[in-house]
Amino acid sequence: MTTDSKTPEAHQQPTPEIVPRPGPKRTELSQGFWDAVENKQLAVQKCSACDLLRHYPQPHCPACHSNDFGWAPLSGRGEIYSYTVAHRAFHPAWNEHVPYVIATIELEEGVRMVCDLLEVDPERIAIGQRVEVDFAELPGQGWMPRFEVID
Ligand SMILES: [Zn+2]
Question: What residues have CB less than 8 Å from 62, skipping those under 6 apart?
Answer without folding.
Answer: 52, 54
